[in-house]
Amino acid sequence: MATTGTGGGGGVAKVLDKLAASVQDGNYYEAHQMYHSVCQRYLKQKKYASALELLHQGSKNMLQYNQIGSAADLAQRMLDLYESESLPVDATNRSRLLDVFQSFPLRTEQCDNYVRACIKWSGKHGNCPTGDQAMHHAIGSRYYKERQYYDAEYHFAYGTLDSARAWAHMAWEWSGEGYFPDRGYFLARIVLPYLALKKLSHATASFDTFVNDLSQNDPSLRGTTLPFSSADGSPSPDLAFYASSLINLCQLLLVVVQRDATTQFSTLKSHYRDVYAFDGYLNEMMDRIAVVWFDLGPKKMMNPLEDIMKSLFAGAPSAPAPRQQAQILEMD
User: Fold this and answer.
1) Tens digit of each residue's pLDDT (9 = 90 or more) over 130-186
2) For residue 17, how many other CB atoms are within 10 A of its CB?
3) Residue 127: is its pLDDT beyond 80?
4) CA–CA distance, 97 with 26 (Å, rounded to integer)
5) Distances in Å between the alpha carbon of 145 and those of 100, 152, 166?
């Protein structure tokens, strides 16, 4: 950015107040045009900070009065300025974008487009090609708060370690709403994609958080704690097994990927196939885990950074036909 001078904060404040009053009086079209006109003047004077402040406040003012189209237009111009000036992903630039996002009504085309544009900018100008993790976490947290679970899942998958814990809390709440009879299904929707992305710490944190919620709220789902013995005699933790075979599967996956235990993984995958194969998404994640952790299966794969989360926007599947509870896998 060539310069960030504002040419006098008081002058900018007066302009903002005048335009805000115009919006408040219902002169939406005139105010919209004036925001663009003043912005253009600031840009010609290279007063980029003033232009950003104008567009930021203009977007919020329009959203306050439900002028979603005008707000989206001003927000997009703000993002265009982010791009043209190659603004870095830092606390100030991130918070400005998120402040506008918090005012957008969810489940609107304008909000969805704005979120995609924000993530694209952060992926291009930050350190993470899939989008800034803190931004993903903030966006996912709002979706979670407003019970937009599928949207929250996507952003938590690419978020921070706190995202993993938040996703697990959300999954526990979601699992009690009657969408699917096995509460472990919602945990598997976290642990398997995290492992497919090789985010072991995230997978572990989400598992621990979910089972802690389970222990506090429905301890009847937790069964016997058994010693876990490995073929090589290495130290092994005791494992608590659960009424849900999908929870047990997630727990055992976390063990075998850390041991680089290819044979044990293959046995696990085969033994639990009936537990997860009813759902195409979980089946695909297991195949990806086989490749990225154990070099098993076809070597030609879709780019996980682009495709791995597509099925997260699908609803929970129909319950599978009743079947006998899968036996706990003996890892020997």
Assistant:
1) 999 999 999 999 999 999 999 999 999 999 999 999 999 999 999 999 999 999 999
2) 11
3) yes
4) 25
5) 17, 9, 10
* CA–CA dist 96, 108 (Å, integer): 20
The H-or-E segment that residue 240 falls in is strand 238-242
- Positive or negative CA dihedral for 261, 264, 269, 274? negative
Tokens of 181: 């009879």
At 23 the three-state DSSP class reads: helix
| β 222-227/238-242 pair status | antiparallel
Residue range 11-38, pLDDT digits in tens: 788 999 999 999 999 999 999 999 999 9
- Can you list the pairs that 74-82 forms with residues at least 24 positions away whose Cβ atoms lie under 8 Å? 74/32, 74/35, 74/36, 75/100, 75/114, 76/113, 76/114, 76/117, 77/36, 77/39, 78/52, 79/114, 79/117, 79/118, 79/121, 81/43, 81/48, 81/51, 81/52, 81/55, 82/121, 82/125
Q: What is the DSSP string of 67-113?
A: -HHHHHHHHHHHHHHHHHTT----HHHHHHHHHHHHHSPSSSHHHHH
At 52-110, the pLDDT tens digits run: 999 999 999 999 999 999 999 999 999 999 999 999 999 999 999 999 999 999 999 99
% of the chain surpassing 90 pLDDT: 75
CA angle centred on 96, ends 130 and 307, rounded to 5°: 15
CB under 8 A, 24+ apart: contacts of 56-60: 56/96, 56/99, 56/100, 57/16, 57/19, 57/20, 58/19, 58/31, 58/32, 59/100, 59/103, 60/99, 60/100, 60/103
